[in-house]
Amino acid sequence: MPLRDEEIESATYIDRASILLPPGDNATVKAFALIVLNQPITDLNMLDRVWSNAAVKICADGGTNRLHAALDESTRSKYKPDFIAGDLDSLNADIRAYYEKELGVPVYYSPDQDSTDFGKCLLKLGELYPGERFPVVALGGTGGRVDQEFHSIHTLFVHEREAKEEDTADKKKREITLLSDDSLTFLVGPGTQKIYTPRSVLGPTCGIIPVSGPTVISTLGFTWDIEDWATSFGTQVSTSNAMEADEVVIKSDQTVLFTLEIRR
């Protein structure tokens, strides 16, 4: 059956796109932490926007090399991370010396081989800012090796599960968004969600991926809207759809992965 008006009016509102808007056009953006992962940085305009909008800037091990390589001497000191963390097996010695010795950036070593550098940065973020629950944007969270992409998606689920298991009063989970030069990607939970999708920076292409298993979804605001549509790997999956509005609605009975193209 189609989405009812009362479902749309009471939908949970999700805004993960304001991080991409120029400062001054993003009044609704929440303070967030940016983690630079070990993927090439080629879109300097995107880097500048998310860096300017971020409250905390972090480099994950080899992500420090990528940040250093993307910038020239005239701009490098402007992009000073608040800290660097990881097992430091990828961080070049001369680049570590530049950030640690010349710019005074703290570098934290963790030998734990049961977590990725992404996970180590999330852990250190919680240790250094214990009273905060910053949303996290992982630049380089998709792209590159497929196994690393799957681990980034796994990390989204880990933090969703941990939020449910936490013995705290607010049960507030840490929102994590994966960002690459091409895509903005995040989890959308069960129920009806209205999602901010400004077409000035996103689209048109998008996909809704049933990463939790067989799922039934309904949508509004897409070129090809669907109603009570069963989706799963091995049957049918909603990819290469397109957005027709600056807000779209997704209703699902399981958590899904929503991925949106970055507009060029």
From TrEMBL:
Q: What GO molecular function terms would the record report? A: ATP binding; kinase activity; thiamine binding; thiamine diphosphokinase activity
Asked if Endoplasmic reticulum is a keyword of the record, the answer is: no
Thiamin pyrophosphokinase thiamin-binding domain location: 191-256
User: Which InterPro entries does the UniProt record give?
Assistant: Thi_PPkinase (IPR006282), Thiamin_pyrophosphokinase_euk (IPR016966), Thiamin_PyroPKinase_B1-bd (IPR007373), TPK_B1-bd_sf (IPR036371), TPK_catalytic (IPR007371), TPK_catalytic_sf (IPR036759)
Q: What class of enzyme is it?
A: transferase
Q: Extract the SMART domains matched here.
A: TPK_B1_binding (SM00983)
- Please report which protein family the annotation says this sequence is part of: Belongs to the thiamine pyrophosphokinase family.
What is this protein's record name? Thiamine pyrophosphokinase
